[in-house]
Amino acid sequence: MTNNTRRLTEAEIHQYRTEGYTLPQGEVFAPDKFQRLLAHFEKKLTEWPKDQRPEAMDTPHFGDPLLNEWALAPEVIDLVEPLLGPDILLFSTHFICKPKGDGRRVPWHEDSAYWKKLLNPMEVATVWLALDPSTKVNGCMYVIPRSHNTGKMGFSDYVDVDTAKSVFGTEIVKADRRDELAVPCELQPNHCSLHDARTQHGSAANTSEIRRCGWTLRFIPATSRLNPDYADRQLLYHARGKNTLGQDLADPSKDYSHVLAERKRQGFKAH
Asked: What is the pLDDT of residues 73-107, one digit of tens each?
């Protein structure tokens, strides 16, 4: 790695490759850096439109370049370099904030199912950073181990679900998943999990008195190509190493709110 540290152990790398997820030990950021991120998010939440659910803060870094201080931080990139290699691009981020009492469930899904027209090959590593405690009590994420390399390899069949109760409108059909194998990814603030884009995962509603917010940071190797048909709705940022394919890259200091507006205009939801 560029800073000569090895953020993941061999056991964690092995678990990610074989099970489709892992929970790295230790905090992601220094305490003061994490507190600044948390304060920045709290401010964003107070400004979030009251008629929109807080679980739906998709790609906030497009319109808020200050978030790239954390999204592109070496503390984060060090987590994914052992999985993706030295040449890395930031593909997406998403705040999924479940309010206490009525936080909606996240149906069983594969991230890859939302991106199959965007990326080739489908190789994405997600850092799920806990801003709040994330436990079985307040709706933590569950994953189904080994689901990333079995069955339909990230492209299961889906059925419609009630959007009044769920963050997404579809869910993997029961026949394509093994709920009984699901394991919880319980995290304390400033800790994270990692999962493969093809790993089946979901979470229950938050009916507790504790908010549950996580920030997903999604990275691809620079050898994965963004479909140019989506260039008006999706941005890539340089994270580390070489831009192997010479793809167009966004300026991390620039506000791209017009891209968010275009996504909204087209009803584009890439998870």
From this structure: 999 999 999 999 999 999 999 999 999 999 999 99
Q: With b meaning 16 or more CB within 10 Å and e meaning fewer, what string describes 158-185?
A: beebeeeebbbebbbeeebbeeeebeeb
CA end-to-end span of the chain: 29
Residue 203's contacts (CB-CB under 8 Å, 6 or more residues apart) are 98, 105, 106, 139, 140, 141, 142
Specify whether domain 10-266 bears CATH 2.60.120.620.
yes
CA distances from 104 to 88, 167, 251 (A): 32, 6, 34
Q: What is the CA radius of gyration of the chain?
A: 17
Neighbours of 144 (CB within 10 A): 24
Amino acid of residue 118: L
Domain boundaries, the chain: 10-266
The token pair at 200 is 């089946």
Backbone angles phi and psi of 40, in degrees to 5? -65, -40
Nearest to 233 by CA among 71, 94, 49, 59: 59
d(CA 190, CA 132): 8
Can you read off the two tokens belonging to residue 89? Answer: 């691009």
What is the Cα–Cα distance from 13 to 8, expressed in whole angstroms? 6
Question: How far is it, in rounded angstroms, from Cα 140 to Cα 83?
Answer: 24
pLDDT tens column, 205-235: 999 999 999 999 999 999 999 999 999 999 9
Average pLDDT across the chain, whole number: 96
Length of the chain: 271
Name the phi and psi angles at 81, rounded to 5. Answer: -60, -40
Structural tokens at position 178: 């093994």
